[in-house]
């Protein structure tokens, strides 16, 4: 699995998808992160054959991740949703499939059925691995308790834990659990919120470090993650930014830089928070 992938959250429309994926492949990305709830799997699937031909690649040269929507928790719904994703992405297998959220849509957070449906979904994903339709499975947005619960009954351990992670939200307990159990930790929203008043991109400490290294703030944030072996999936519709975000392997942050950034943690979620789900 590449340490850096191309995120597609909020990226919709066939022409837009074709343009950004072309820019991503040109810049060297070989991993694509999508999800059922992003509503762009079908457009990605339609664009991929032409892009693979253009860049002289095969299906095995790229890494495709998708995710189970919260409304599709449970054995039967999970199976139907997974096969729909396969069909829309026009592929016989996925490299990685995640349970996007530990809860079930429209169900009360403390409903005990949450645990059972989550378990059914996971065991169904294991069957897809055994059938050769999935190469790896994982989770997203779980709380530490959800992960510990999963590790008690799973036959196949999660390969990846995808989570909101940036200098204002350093989820150390989850990271430690992942390291202890051989699970790759992958960050989403590495650049913070997509709002105009992005408090991560405008953080004066990050800006100071960016000026010192003569890099963009985004590059500092992404380098901070990969230098700690945290996977990243930055997204953009700007071709220049797409290329720039890939250029995070030709410089290093100092121990002093890392210490300064580590002190910025506010435990602030800019995206979703599954705290309270049974």
From TrEMBL:
Active site: residue positions: 38 (proton donor)
Database matches in InterPro entries: AKR, Aldo/ket_reductase_CS, NAD(P)_OxRdtase_dom_sf, NADP_OxRdtase_dom
Entries under SUPFAM superfamilies matching the protein: NAD(P)-linked oxidoreductase
Q: Where is this site: Lowers pKa of active site Tyr?
A: 67
Keywords of the record? NADP, Oxidoreductase
GO molecular function list: oxidoreductase activity, acting on the CH-OH group of donors, NAD or NADP as acceptor
- The residue ranges of the NADP-dependent oxidoreductase domain are 4-265
Q: Indicate which residues the UniProt annotation says bind substrate.
A: 100
Signal peptide annotation: none
Q: Which Pfam families match?
A: Aldo_ket_red
Q: Which family does it belong to?
A: Belongs to the aldo/keto reductase family.
Tell me the PANTHER family matching this sequence: 2,5-DIKETO-D-GLUCONIC ACID REDUCTASE, NADP-DEPENDENT OXIDOREDUCTASE DOMAIN-CONTAINING PROTEIN
Q: What is this protein called?
A: Aldose reductase-related protein 1,Glyoxal reductase
